[in-house]
Queue: 3 jobs
Job 1
Amino acid sequence: MPLYQAIVLAVVQSLTEFLPISSTAHLALAPWLLGWRDPGLSFDIALHLGTVAALLAYFLRDWLQLAAQGFGSSRFNHDPELGANRRLLWMLAAATLPVGFTGYFFKSYAEQSWRSPLLMGAMLISIGILMYWADRRSQGRRDLARLSWADALWIGLAQAVAIVPGVSRSGITITAALLRDLNRPAAARFSFLLSTPALLGAAVKEALDVAAAGGIEPAMQLPFVVGIVVSAVTGWLVIAFFLRFLRRHTLRIFVYYRVAFGIMVIALALTALP
């Protein structure tokens, strides 16, 4: 795999994982659109590891506070919003269960038959429209201090739907949070925190699969390292940008992008059909 392809795909992963525009769709469609060979499972692990590293680096203080207060300690208490809801750790744990269920039972479909350009294009458009409606409807009157168990489970169920390519994990969970009347920064923050255990679990599972198959091929070792580093650094920057962006702006630009990209994908898929 050429290094420039590893860099491009790592940047695409970081941009599309954290922005609500579907990393799965972009990573599946990028080689198809550019005429590149599928990099395979080992490179997917590198991208997932880099993504998880970006999340852990950016939200390390949040996780330390959540873990401490979840077990009754007041150490690492840096954020009053998190400190006002001492059940957040356990809410995140409960909200992670649905995606574990769907991943276990539907992973093979998500990696094979559901990776259809027509399906991904349809999901890009339909979830974009839902995101627009939620963004317009939400009053944004609550933050994480007022997050309830019902909110957390609702957002967790939404994350489970993200196994369908084209949905977008951040897109569907932020949309679900907006529908529960969280403000945009709180919705994105909870979305990113919730995605961390799911992405870490996916990376570990993929790593075990590759190890069982004989490990990373020598030709893929350098692209593997480059993929981790580029996706981690780019991911951290994208998280910082997106959280700052949502303090002053709506999700409308991402809705427009999703709909336009979805229409393009469907058009290209239909013209490519025999």
Job 2
Amino acid sequence: MRLLDVRDLHIDFATEKGLLHAVRGVDFALEEGEVLGIVGESGSGKSVTAHSTMRLLPPNAQYAGGDVLYRGESVFGYGYERLRGFRGREIGVIFQEPGRSFDPIYSIGKTMAETIRAHEPELTDEEIHEKSIRLLQETNVPFPEDRLSNFPHQFSGGLLQRIMIALALASDPRVLIADEPTTSLDVTIQAGIIDLLIRLKEERNLSIIFITHNLALISGIADRIVVMYAGLVMEQGPTSEVLAAPRHPYTRALLNSILDLGQHYTDTPITAVAGTVPDPLSPDVGCPFAPRCPLAEAACREAIPPFMQDGHLHRCRFPGVKE
């Protein structure tokens, strides 16, 4: 069953220098029980796209076109009360950098109580306290009852991320947006967070949108991958297919830049993606990756390639060609 359907989504931001074109016609769907990975460099439009599904964008954001459907109903048509009930109860979100997502003067218990009470005002203080403990237990926070009285600065980054996941699950959402949930965490803590999300997905039948710039990380959790660049979807398909036979040069460049464990102790060179991302204030008319692509020809710079089906969807005139 399809839960989310993003259709030709366009999002701009009004700035002092003009309109910043952050998302330029994004299409994808999320099925029930599926993990969808959205990958790409910083500034590619991943987080803006995901947050737009909850209309969680700043006041200068402009929805310039397209639609977001949840269970076939347009999110953009929700009124204030419907939107309040939708956020958290239908879609939960794990934000980047958990250390900056908590109020430093609120204890963890007070933060969780405020979140739970927003969607379940009928619960007593004792019931909220018990539910808070259960949520921390579910996300493997040790000594949960004792930790409710602690403040954010008393936790490591990994434990704060687990508490953030508990908060996102407090209202039993159907969809969970994990926005770079392992940023700034070391490799072993990252693995623990991934294992936790996989377990919660199975136990709760969650659908997850997992946002990251790390293709190696996404390979172990996502059923399908959406590769974004400069506000566009450049390639999307089943994870195994995209990683085994990438059709777009940008996807191949991301894969080639992945470090193997211990590689920095060898003579193997690190292959970086040459060049820089385009200016979103004045995007090129053609393929945005053309200035960095060794395969680009004049036609690539004249218009954005349409989606083509070659194993899976992509936007490239030279699918699968090695540079």
Job 3
Amino acid sequence: MDIIVFQEHNSGELKVEGVRRYGEGLKIIKTISIDTFLPDFIEEPEDFIEDDFSADLVLNFLKHPDLVEYLIRLCEQKKIPVVSPGKKGSGFTPFTCCGLGKSNALGAYGEKFGLPEYKVRVEADKIAAIEVVRGAPCGATWDALQEYLGCTVEDVLTRLPRQVQYFCSADPSGFDPVSGKSPVHYAGYVHIAALKKAIASAS
């Protein structure tokens, strides 16, 4: 699966690294970085984003709303699915990268990345084995598990959200006015919910 990434000032670098580390079968064929000064209002976004690209999926880590809107519109014209975490508009716009639901339109990327899923084995109320089935493209889902084998279930349930938040690359200041949660808090919540579900299934 060929992926193109659009970003501003390295805003997607950690996700790019995570996709390369954990996204078997996924290939980032191009990263388009916009690193110049941007005015508050961009009248001609085509000056910054050329329309001669093609891919199976676009990951949109742009921040300027005029560029975000233009890129999504371009992808719609090209019939390329686009994932725009934390943005508004059409396409796939989860609150965070780890809030992305599954969709056939997202192919192998959607199978590997999005709302986290674990498989665990519990022995004597301790985590004997744990596997990430699906996780955050920033890698936090995998990175947060480094020290939990052999730990009690209660200990892991207490510590995992903090570990995920530590590794999470989302902006902690980006509070959602409706839920009152930041992307970092949301990441901790969805990961602990996924782990509880996996432990219940293992039991």
